[in-house]
What does this fold into?
Amino acid sequence: MKNKYRRHPVIVKVLGSVGGFCPRSPLNGAGDQGRIFPTPLRPARRRRTHRRPRHRLRRGRAAPDHGRAHGPRTADSVALTFHGQGDPAIAHALLKEAERAHAHITVLAVGTWLDEHPDIARRILDGGHDLGNHTLHHRDINAMSESDAYAEITGCADRIRRLTGSIGTWFRPSRTPTATPLVTRLARRAGYPHVLSYDVDSLDFTSPGADTVVDNVTSALRPGSVVSLHFGYTDTVAALPPLLDHLDRRGLSAVTCTELLT
Ligand SMILES: [Zn+2]
It folds into this structure.
């Protein structure tokens, strides 16, 4: 495939590798600013540090789960995850393209979107896909008060439960790739044991053209990756078949987050 659109180096530098954000966010690009800070001129003084007990993180239950960004790197699968909002015709087209290739996806639905298009919830589950919570209004949840943030999570959970009988397994925070410890606690209180992040950002919501969406994903994808994509953008519909072909050539299948991560 000929790449008609090459990624702009500045955009890639500032946005491409930060792993994330969602459209229309005032915090776009703020996800990983530390990477572009200059290194300090003076070396840090040697001192005894309290190291995190890594073995405990690997083995166990001690790690706080502020965002699952990928599955095992030995997996023969990846998870394609979608911000659930926008024109329902595009959502239906994406579901159809996924099912044509026997792929299963994970949709993190915005609660108000489910109010506008209640049929889509069952449609997603009936296709064998995962349906999760992406807050009620898709606001900057990490910046909200405890009570407002909790209302955002439970507002969406209530809608999913009413439409499907369950709140789903996954919660993805809005307008940020990772939740704060407070938001993680609130999600747990609302019944979500896992906060979902991602390690590959398609940047499809910048409408860069389908070729670039495919390139953004395939250049960063590894076994076990969780890919961030969005309903609501036509580039994503055009990108999905070549993306699924690419997975097939690499011997990777597209599975739900439940299948990849639990
Ligand atoms: Zn989103």
